[in-house]
Structure prediction request, 493 residues.
Amino acid sequence: MTDQVNIPPPLTAPVVQTSADGAARKLQGRIGVVELMLTVLAFSAPLTVVAAFAVFVLSYNRSAPIAFAVAIVLLLLFAVGYTTMTRYLPNPGAFYAYITAGLGRHAGLGSSFLAMFGYVTMAVGTVAFFGTIASSLVSDTFYGPDIPWYVYSLLCVTVTGVLGYFRIDLSAKVLSVVMGCEILIVLIFNVAVMANGGPEGRSLEPFSLGGFAADDVGLAVLFAATCFLGFEATAIFREETKDPDKTVPRATYGAVLFIGVFYLVSIWLLIVAYGPSQAQTVAVDDYAGMFPNAVTLYVGPWATDVVRVLLCSSIFACLLSVQNILSRYTYSLGVDNVLPDPLGRVHPKHGSPYISSVAVTAVLLVVLGGVAIAGADPGVVYASLAGTGGFAVLVLMFLTGVSALVFFWKRPDIADRRVFHMFIAPLLSAISMATVLYLAITNFTHMTGGSTMQAIALQITLWATFIIGIAMAAVYKVRRPETYRRIGRQRVG
Prediction:
């Protein structure tokens, strides 16, 4: 599966693909480190994580902050090899380009299909969740009309589709504002708890290694790691950043460190708010109410209403982030002629992958419409599809770690042989991600919240998508060799 690919020499300018008529194709944008960080971090919806997923981690392990600390270390190891590759592989395409460069075009195309499958499932699950939250917000908090959830969901997809049509700078500004607001409300809560202390004081008991080892370490680390998903998408925006050789690595490291410390401190103070002796019990018994009730107690009722509003905007920002990521994967496959050529077109004014963005919006509207017509429970849809998409990203991160090892092994021409960055960190990343992936496979029903049969069906669909991509690469190699050579945004000719 590891066929030879045409890899640019070290530190060359980015590869710019051309269309059949020779016109250059390159996305345009001027987003910097902070904007790129916030663009990808919106994917993880920090307020949603603190209010829901971090509580879920706590329900498995009383020392949840340690689980997040472990996740930070694992993902920083991944980031080392990932960002080092950006210096020697300036091709846009993220997982698609990086896995192709190391493991060959067959694995690369399979990975691109798996990435699109994963992000689509997460998008549909997320927008279904948005519909339920928005419907509840309007009817219960603002005492407005009781409108079906799917109306809000369809509206959300439409708005994100419109924003995705324009230059990335617009989406980045929207995401920055939303992210800033949701981080601010959590920080206000954190400061209030830190200032007042909890019923057991500002206890450091949640950092007890004994407590961490006594509970379910595997599931705690697994779910903590999935709270970070999205940071790996920095490289997909390479063409649209200022000085990508510096912006992409800095934003990747910054995203992991910033959001990791944010989660760690926030879950610690949430535990402090209830007291270490009671926090895990509350997390199990009142999963949904743990954070809002603590906010009401320490900040005030007004803050609880703000949290409800910002939770809705947080999920919207998550979908907008996924919309942008999906559009760029579709665009890359269009540029390479793997998918229809028009998908690889760039808007002459906005410099955006506008046709790909419209196509992604159409697909999401169709799938969401099918979910609504089928009368599916949006909560079940969110749990099963978001979990499946998260699993797909974990697979891609493992493959990327292995790919980085192979890539640098095949590049003896690189004079600056940084052993830790090129070999040790990618090896440790591959091992650690393999461990997380094993936990995800053995606990897939927990990730998706459904039955064993449903989990099996989702796994079959997921791996079938990967295999279809591999098979298509094999077909292109024989029938469309020009397209085959372009797979992975590779230089042709």
About this structure: Residues 6-17, 19-24 have pLDDT under 50 and may be disordered. The radius of gyration is 22 Å.
